[in-house]
Amino acid sequence: xxxxxxxxxxxDGVQSLDVTGPLEVFAGxxxxxxxxxxxxxxxxxxxxxxxxxxxxLVPDEALTxxxxxxxxxxxxxxxxxxxxxxxxxxxxxxxxxAPRLVSVCTGAVLLAVAGLLDGRRATTHWAYCGxxxxxxxxxxxxxxxxxxxxxxxxxxxxxxxxIDLALALVEEDLDRDVALAVARHLVVFLxxxxxxxQFSAQLAAQTAQRxxxxxxxxxxxxxxxxxxxxxxxxxxxxxxxxxxxxxxxEETGTTPGRYVDRVRLEHAxxxxxxxxxxxxxxxxxxxxxxPEAMRRAFVKxxxxxxxxxxxxxxxxxxx
Length: 319
What we know:
The chain contains 14 helices and 11 strands.
């Protein structure tokens, strides 16, 4: 297998974890399978850069001296808000030459400014998806997934999602066993599927202002297999079903039904990832009732069946 050169682009205001997270994944894969990756970092002039957190990063070389990499990785950070025109021009020229182009978080903004995402589906940190879509209408921005693949271009959501994408690329380059070995070494036990939502149910929805509605949110989370119909939840909040549904949506930004769906999906995922219970047992414990109902929910939300999800995203037992 030919060695792949990976080039990480550095600039002032870069988010350090956007760089070091994926870099550690690829470095771990190189240690596991020597000769797989050659990892390089580069800034415009080859000088040190200061990350958004104040950490100084010293690159290996200048971008102008970097040989054509197999994978060009562009991180995000505060420095993407007013990028150096020389950097976006360099990306405009050299980005199309890379067999694989990757961005982490708001690195997608740099790719978009360079015209490298036009006509492509892409994502970025949830807080910047609206801005990316508004400023670059030629880009098909999807705010939901933690990472998106469109041909040779891969974009990921905020910060740690870059680790998930890097693990997926290692699996693509090598195999699943290497990716899982790297994940275990980094104590990143589970690789999330790219089409998993950026938010958990609790993060996706706002916390209700009124105590009775907050109590209902807590109850749903702690009792996914309970009676979570609107009538039942309304009674718990001591509101009429109609008033409850309206108030819940106004205060959380989602309907009770969608909130319940997300909680049940998360609960089922965790059981599949962390416990040896059978599919039927997981379905009952998560409130689906039947394996078929759970299968439909998984396919709709994640694009994969529960059994396949468990096979792919539960770490192999240590020997």
